[in-house]
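> tool_call: predict_assembly(chains=two)
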Amino acid sequence: MVQKFLGLLLALVDQTGLMSISIGNIIMIIVGAVLIYLALAKKYEPFLLIGIGFSCIVSNVPGSDLTAPGGLFHYAYSGLEKVIIPPLIFLGVGAMVDFAPMIARPSLMILGAAAHAGIFIAIVLAKMTGIFTIAEAGAIGIIGGADGPMAIFVTMKLAPHLLPQVAVAAYSYMALMPLIQPPVMKLLTSKAERSIEMTQRRPVSRLEKIVFPFVIAIIVNLLLPPVAPLITMLMLGNLLREVLIVDRLSKTVANDLMNVITIILTVAVGSTMAAESFLTFKTLLILGLGLIAFIGGTASGVIGAKMMNWFLKEKINPLLGSAGIASVPIAARVAHFVALKENPHNFIIMHAMGPNLAGVFGTAISGGIMLALLGVK
Amino acid sequence: MDILPMTVPDTLEGAYILSIVDFFLSIVIIWVISLVLYCLPYVNKFGDVTDESLTSGH
């Protein structure tokens, strides 16, 4: 009788995950807990890190089949795998963003490209390690684009197995931009340069704002088919916002849909952080290269703005260049606060939003060209 | 996802080529978009669309 009972108990234990938990699982559970701590205590991207941290913890508890094919988290991941989630996020972002600062001063758009040299520095360094293929190096480089959905989109096309590392690096560094960017910005500019005040930008009419999404969608579909799904949805979201007449749709995509997609995205990313694929030397390298990409992008943006000043009669504040790295609106806010520290009357946030929004296009364009050059449709 | 034949070699040289070409083309395409945006104010010549005209009767 006792033997039968013990046998039954052992059979039950066998069905749980208790016997198969590894040191790696425990480390990843701690990593998940740290992400949640950063979200709660440090307020670093709580909307993202809570979901990622939670699903990272749950996915590393052996036993359930949440992440296995047929499991609930696996279906969330399918949204990334089929590249459906990033365009839907862009739809919501488009409905939230006013592109007027970019439309009003197109000359600053070039900073959206200049601030992406970090991508290419990271690609070359990744290839120099001899560990990564060029497709993997491209996925690592795109971390420097400081655009989460774009990083996921490009990574899913080039190196889907690197998704957890790339996503975690991209979102973590975006959250840490107020710490990463200012030292680089101060190192490359003088106090006088940081104090430059910007002139008022021209007003943008409603008609211009309505025509803008059509123009951009046509250009991108024409020139950059690989990233057309993302930018097309970004522009559709923006059109819904600017035509005013469908405010119900605009509010739905900017709020409800965006929230639902964010939950699915965070669950999907966190569920890929399995110990066996995440706890590797490659992960450390990717995190290091991602940081270099962010620093390189900030530096190249500031240098690009300083180079523009060689040719401009009316000088621009070179801090605007750092906002070209994307990560809307964090980078613009960082530029604003650094400028404000030097000159308490200098409010450059709306001026920085121009290059900041151009940075979204800069990342998309770099990603699109990269996909095309690597032969990925 | 369709993988077409690689156009850039999977070498360090390929990484240099990819980086230089991508960076250069990014600047060119952004520049083209900014040129188009310079022309955007001309659409105002076709008429005025006010917020009221869009939302009235809705």
